[in-house]
Write a structure and sequence with these properties.
Rossmann fold, 313 residues, two-stranded antiparallel sheet, 8 helices, alpha/beta, eight-stranded mixed sheet
């Protein structure tokens, strides 16, 4: 395992690679950066979205370090530099999203509890945000506060959602869970032309991600499998149930992307409205990936985070 850098995306200084192994023997690629001043404000754990990798967050790591945090970043099972779950490494797969809890548990016991000062916070994007929301509804969450960017509470633009979910569930039950979801393939989305992309309006940061993949194609991921999509539908159904947000007492800051064409913004607003200890701030005109958006959108993100996380700013 290693971290990869390009001229426009250097590895933040002071970090160390910290491979961890989960309870079910999955090897995760993780990295730890100690705070650059003492005492540390606390520790932030970066929980990426589907198909992402640690290198995509080097800019964010450096920004949190400048604010006095220790930083932990890792690749979920099945993506980045962590163990892949199918023989075709380009398939984004998991059988059930509860398996991702084992990744967080391994990070907690092998990195956080060993080297990281409290309070512990987590920043989750899209899929990572959905996983953290799921954990926040239980007693297993180890984080004091959550910051979520465009958490995956529902998928944007599905014309017949109920029929689509039933079809995917049926295909999974028939043993096709390891196949690409309809319309999917091995091509990593971030390598497609910038024009028409639904992730960011920033061409430089979009190109930076493509450059990382060109340099280290082994960390890239193609489309999700039928099994992953079926598991995602089950999780989204669980966290969008009316009673679920009311059971979540962890303080949560949600940053919504006003021009999101990946996560359904209306579903996100309905979810956030029912939270007991959370709020939604909508960043108008931002595309889905707020952290790789243009500077004016990122400035709104940081202003909200600085006001929400104790000691930040």
């Amino acid at each position: 395992m290693q971290l990869f850098q390009t001229p426009k995306n250097p590895v933040p200084s002071g970090g160390t690679l910290r491979p961890v192994k989960t309870a079910d023997s999955i090897n995760l690629r993780a990295a730890f950066w100690p705070a650059r001043r003492a005492p540390a404000v606390g520790t932030i754990v970066l929980c990426q979205g589907r198909s992402e990798f640690i290198e995509k967050y080097f800019e964010v790591v450096a920004e949190f370090l400048e604010k006095g945090f220790c930083v932990v970043a890792f690749d979920w099972r099945g993506q980045g530099g962590s163990d892949r779950l199918l023989s075709n490494a380009r398939k984004g797969h998991v059988d059930d999203f509860a398996q991702y809890w084992r990744d967080i548990d391994a990070i907690q016991h092998q990195i956080l509890s060993v080297d990281c000062p409290k309070p512990w916070f987590a920043l989750g994007h899209s899929m990572g945000g959905a996983i953290l929301l799921d954990m926040a509804g239980s007693t297993d969450l180890c984080f004091d506060r959550l910051v979520l960017t465009a958490p995956m509470v529902d998928i944007y633009g599905i014309k017949y959602p109920r029929a689509s979910r039933l079809l995917i569930a049926a295909l999974d039950a028939c043993g096709l869970g390891g196949a690409f979801a309809p319309g999917g393939g091995e091509t990593a989305g971030a390598t497609l032309p910038f024009a028409g992309n639904v992730l960011t309006s920033d061409p430089a940061r979009y190109a930076r991600t493509a450059d990382i993949i060109a340099y280290a194609p082994q960390i890239a991921l193609g489309h999700c499998t039928i099994g992953w999509l079926d598991a995602a539908f089950r999780l989204m159904g669980k966290i969008s149930a009316p009673e679920f947000p009311r059971q979540t007492l962890t303080p949560i800051l949600i940053l919504g992307a006003g021009n999101d064409r990946v996560v359904d913004q209306h579903a996100l607003e309905a979810f956030a409205h029912r939270l007991k200890a959370g709020r939604l701030i909508n960043i108008a005109h931002s595309e889905h990936e707020i952290l790789v958006e243009r500077d004016p959108f990122r400035a709104q993100f940081w202003a909200a985070v600085d006001a929400f996380l104790p000691g930040s700013g």
